[in-house]
Amino acid sequence: MMKKLVIDVDTGVDDAQAIMVALAAPNVEILGITCSHGNTTLENACKNTLRVLKMCERMDIPVYRGSSGPLLARKRHAADFHGKDGLGDAPDPDAPGLECLQEEEAVKALIRIVSENPGEISVVAMAPLTTLATAVKVDPSLPGKIKGLYIMGGNTESRGNTTVCGEFNFVTDPEAAYIVLNTFSCPTFIAPWEFSCRNSLPWSFCDTWLDQKTAKARFMERIFSHTRKMIQTVRYQKEVVGEATFNTCDAYAMAAAIDDTLVTESEKVAVTVELEGTYTRGMMVLDHMELLKKEHKATIMKKVDLEKFKKMLMASLK
């Protein structure tokens, strides 16, 4: 069966990798891509998304402009990691312009697409959750129409990559993450930061992945160069990742949405987000003691079939 997806992105390099995984999957129909602030500015995220679609010859997929900033938090971007433009500062003079965006804005498009396909759409959220939080405020019935929600974000052991205890997507808009985790009652699958670190791949695989003799591989090699150098610095490996491995965070959530058998170990637990802590604002909280009395449990990904994941990544650049 074809899997119908709406993808919410803040397109930096890992979003580009995830989008290309979805585009290469034969069982996937992407009904729309909504763009948000996050890794880079909203404008850059929109441009970068269009650029990826052009490279993959899929400009038929509609792209929608979303939120330019968080609900309440101060703006933050990840220019040091993804480059100032979000795609490694590797410009393309022939990249599509913003006139290629749809006139309809992202929140309205998300609500419309889901409403037109009730129970059929899986949403893959790889950006700060501003778009989804706004959408559920506009249409509280939205979560009940979604087949599944796949989130890259949050953390399970207070291990931060942006603040002491916080993962980037949740820290960038904590209120949005709180709203989504506490109002979306559809099946929810979360790929947290520690999970992606534990399921990362050796750099030798990355070399093989990028060595494919295709235009897509050359494109990925160009946009990934800045981020790769950043990741491979001794300081980053020691303080953030912990070992020298290739970790394409967003692609895990995307791969799980595409292939139901990819995740080999998970747990179901109620979750929320801390909003007030000096050091813990934006941290995902797992309620193992069930003190929150929440009926809805999220599925927290723990392990994946790495051989399947490698095949999906390889196919994305063919």
> What spatial form do the alpha-carbon principal axes imply?
globular
Instruction: Return the structural class.
Output: alpha/beta
Radius of gyration: 18 Å
Strand content: 15-25%
In CATH, the homologous superfamily goes by the name Ribonucleoside hydrolase-like
Amino-to-carboxy terminus distance: 23 Å
Report helical residue fraction: 25-40%
Oligomer: single chain
- How many strand units? 9
Question: Average pLDDT, to the nearest integer?
Answer: 94
- Write down the CATH topology: Inosine-uridine Nucleoside N-ribohydrolase, Chain A
**What's the CATH class, please?**
Alpha Beta
Unreliable runs: none
When the domains are counted, the total is 1
- CATH architectural type: Alpha-Beta Complex
Structure overview:
There is one protein chain. The two termini are 23 Å apart. Helices cover 39% and strands 18% of the residues. By secondary structure, it is an alpha/beta fold. The chain has a single domain, classed as Inosine-uridine Nucleoside N-ribohydrolase, Chain A (Alpha-Beta Complex), CATH 3.90.245.10. The chain is globular and about 55 Å long. The chain has 13 helices and nine strands. A nine-stranded mixed β-sheet has the order 3-2-1-4-5-6-9-7-8, with helices on both faces. The model has no long low-confidence stretch (mean pLDDT 94).
